[in-house]
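Researcher: Let's do a round of design. I'm pasting the C-alpha cells now; please hold your answer until I've finished.
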C-alpha cells in the first residue's frame, strides 16, 4: 500500500493582508509536501482562511462591507500570495465553504450525543485579537500576552460548553504515550505542565455577534470560531476524508494551546483519529522589527517575490532559520542577499553553468557514478523526518561543494574526460531533484537542461544581486 502523507498549515485570519510571517509556514508545508511526493507517497496539503468571528465582522463593518464580501476579497489575496511563492496546496479551504459548515454542525451534534455539551453562562475577559476568553492569570498588565496594547473586553453571555475538564487524563496519557504528538519538546513540556493544573470547560457558542456557523442545538447561538476553525483539517482532508489523520499540523506558538489541547479532545469526543504531530514553530521578524501592519508593503510576499524571486525566498527561509527548534527568526534582506549570492549564485549556479559549458564542448560518456556516493542521502531523509530543513540544505550544499572541488581537481577542460563529465551531469541531476521541493522553478530548469540530448550552457540561473 502506498504511504499517505497529509500536512496542514494554520488557516489565516484574513482581517489584513498576507505577509512574510504567514508565508514562512506555508513555504515549509509546501516543501514537506513536495518532498513526500518525491518519495512516491500519496500526498495532501491543506491551507486556507479562517473567515468567521467577531474580528472579521468588526473589520468588515469598518470598511462598510458585508462580512462575506470582505472575506471574499481578502481570501483571494492570500491565495494569490501563495501562488506567487509557488506554494501549491491540494485544497485551499475557506471556513465559509459549505462542506465545512455542514461538517462543523455534524460534529457538534456528535459531541452532544456523547454527553459532552451543556448550557450555561460565560463571563470573562475576551480578546478580540485571539477570538478567545483569556483567563485572569494569563493577562499581562491586564492585556492579552499576544495582543499588547489592545484592550480585552469583559463579556457575559449565555453559552454552550464543551466538557473539556473531562479530557484531562486522556490528554496527559496522549502526551505521555506519544512523545511526537507535540513538537518541539520544549513546547510539549509547557503544555503538559499547564494541562496538569486542570482544565476548564470551554465555551463553544456565542450570542454577542452573528458572523459564524449557526449552532445546530440552538438557533440563537453561533459556533465559537476556534471550534469551527480547527475542524477545517477534517473537512479539508480530501474526498471521504481520505487523508485523515494528518501527519503534521504546522502552527505558530500563539495557536499551540488550541491545537495541543482543544483539538485532540474534540476529536476524541467525536470519535475521529488523532493527528500524528502538532508542530509549533517560532515567529519571524522583518529586518529586526516585529511584523505588523505598519510595516505595510515591504513584507508583502508579492513585493518580495518581485524583488528577489520565489525560489530565493523559499530557499532563504528554509536555510536561514532552524525551523525544528521552534525558535523565532529575523528575516533580513541583507542575509537573504548574502545567501542568494554566496550559495545559490556562486555555488549552485557556477557548478551548473561550468559543467554545462564543458559538456557542450566535450560531451559525456556513461560510467559508474562514484561521485554521487558522497551524497549522504540517509542523512537528508532523517533531517526531513525531523523537520530540519536547514540541515537538509546543508547536506545538499556540502555535496555541491564536493562537486565543485571534483571539477577543480579533475580539470576536465584540460583532460576532456567525458566520464568525469558524466559523473558531474548525473550528480547535478540528483542535486536538482533534491532541491526541487525548495526551489521548484530553478530545479526544473536544471533538470531540463541536463536531461536534454544536447546539453547546452544556457542562461544564468541566479544573477547576483
Ligand atoms: Zn489576544
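Researcher: That's everything. Go ahead.
Model: Designed sequence:
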Amino acid at each position: 500500500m502506498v504511504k499517505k502523507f497529509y500536512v496542514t498549515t494554520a488557516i489565516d485570519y484574513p482581517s489584513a493582508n498576507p505577509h512574510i510571517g504567514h508565508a514562512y509556514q506555508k513555504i515549509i508545508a509546501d516543501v514537506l509536501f513536495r518532498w513526500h511526493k518525491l518519495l512516491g507517497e500519496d500526498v495532501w496539503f491543506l491551507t486556507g482562511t479562517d473567515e468567521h468571528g467577531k474580528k472579521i465582522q468588526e473589520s468588515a463593518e469598518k470598511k462598510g462591507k458585508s462580512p462575506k464580501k470582505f472575506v471574499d476579497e481578502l481570501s483571494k489575496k492570500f491565495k494569490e500570495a501563495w501562488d506567487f511563492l509557488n506554494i501549491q496546496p491540494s485544497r485551499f479551504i475557506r471556513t465559509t465553504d459549505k462542506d465545512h459548515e455542514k461538517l462543523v454542525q455534524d460534529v457538534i451534534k456528535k459531541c452532544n450525543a456523547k454527553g459532552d455539551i451543556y448550557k450555561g453562562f460565560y463571563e470573562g475577559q475576551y480578546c478580540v485579537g485571539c477570538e478567545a476568553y483569556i483567563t485572569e492569570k494569563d493577562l499581562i498588565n491586564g492585556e492579552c500576552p499576544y495582543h499588547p496594547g489592545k484592550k480585552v473586553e469583559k463579556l457575559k453571555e449565555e453559552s454552550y460548553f464543551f466538557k473539556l475538564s473531562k479530557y484531562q487524563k486522556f490528554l496527559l496519557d496522549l502526551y505521555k504515550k506519544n512523545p511526537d504528538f507535540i513538537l518541539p519538546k520544549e513546547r510539549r513540556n509547557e503544555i503538559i505542565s499547564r494541562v496538569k493544573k486542570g482544565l476548564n470547560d470551554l465555551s463553544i457558542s456565542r450570542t454577542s455577534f452573528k458572523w459564524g456557523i449557526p449552532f445546530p442545538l440552538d438557533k440563537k447561538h453561533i459556533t465559537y470560531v476556534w471550534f469551527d476553525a480547527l475542524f477545517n483539517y477534517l473537512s479539508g482532508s480530501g474526498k471521504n476524508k481520505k487523508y485523515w489523520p494528518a501527519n503534521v499540523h504546522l502552527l505558530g506558538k500563539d495557536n499551540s494551546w488550541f491545537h495541543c489541547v482543544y483539538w485532540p479532545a474534540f476529536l476524541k469526543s467525536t470519535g475521529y483519529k488523532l493527528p500524528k504531530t502538532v508542530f509549533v514553530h517560532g515567529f519571524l521578524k522583518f529586518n529586526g522589527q516585529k511584523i505588523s501592519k505598519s510595516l505595510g508593503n515591504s513584507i508583502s510576499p508579492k513585493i518580495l517575490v518581485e524583488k528577489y524571486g520565489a525560489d530565493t525566498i523559499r530557499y532563504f527561509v528554509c536555510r536561514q532559520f532552524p525551523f525544528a527548534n521552534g525558535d523565532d527568526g529575523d528575516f533580513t534582506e541583507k542575509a537573504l542577499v548574502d545567501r542568494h549570492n554566496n550559495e545559490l549564485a556562486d555555488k549552485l549556479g557556477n557548478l551548473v553553468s561550468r559543467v554545462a559549458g564543458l559538456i557542450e564542448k566535450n560531451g559525456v560518456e556513461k560510467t559508474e557514478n562514484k561521485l554521487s556516493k558522497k551524497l549522504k542521502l540517509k542523512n537528508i531523509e532523517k533531517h526531513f523526518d525531523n523537520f530540519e530543513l536547514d540541515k537538509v540544505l546543508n547536506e545538499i550544499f556540502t555535496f555541491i561543494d564536493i562537486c565543485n572541488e571534483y571539477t577543480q581537481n579533475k580539470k576536465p577542460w584540460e583532460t576532456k574526460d567525458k566520464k568525469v563529465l558524466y559523473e558531474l551531469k548525473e550528480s547535478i541531476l540528483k542535486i536538482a531533484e533534491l532541491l526541487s521541493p525548495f526551489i521548484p522553478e530553478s530545479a526544473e530548469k536544471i533538470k531540463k537542461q541536463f536531461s536534454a540530448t544536447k546539453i547546452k550552457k544556457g542562461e544564468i540561473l541566479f544573477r547576483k544581486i
